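INSTRUCTION: Work out how this chain folds

Fields: amino acid sequence; protein backbone structure tokens

Chain under study, with its fold:
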Amino acid sequence: MSEKEESKLIERVNELLLDPAYVKQNWHGRSTDPLLQWLVGLTNSNNSTFAVTLTVGGNLVSGMLISLDEYLNQYATQISAQIGHEESAAVIRDQVLSWKPAQNEENPVPQLIHLKDAEVFTSNGMPIAPGGTLWRGKISSVDGFNLGRLVTGKAN
């Protein structure tokens, strides 16, 4: 590497390290599981779904991993349905949907995970919200994960 190339590289790295979003995503994100980030990225890129169970701060969260697009579609529908005024509901829905990344935009390394039909299980093995809900969390907060849904047996 020439001295000029090395100087340009150092200058570029310095620029990137001054960008808080870059630092958070590319350096602080290193404490996350790269396999889970890959699975979320795969889901985001092709709208696939996977049954997963996450361990988050001692709780189990089980549901269907969905893409950011699918999450925003469902969230927009749910939040706008709670607004009584039709025009206001449309504005809220459009605002939520505006957070979708543009089709030609480069997909950054995912930092958030999205589930539908998610259930958070208490220590007694019973879900807090039976039947599930939409759930969004930081990948960096996930302590562990496995493929498959947690199924509880009914007590006799």
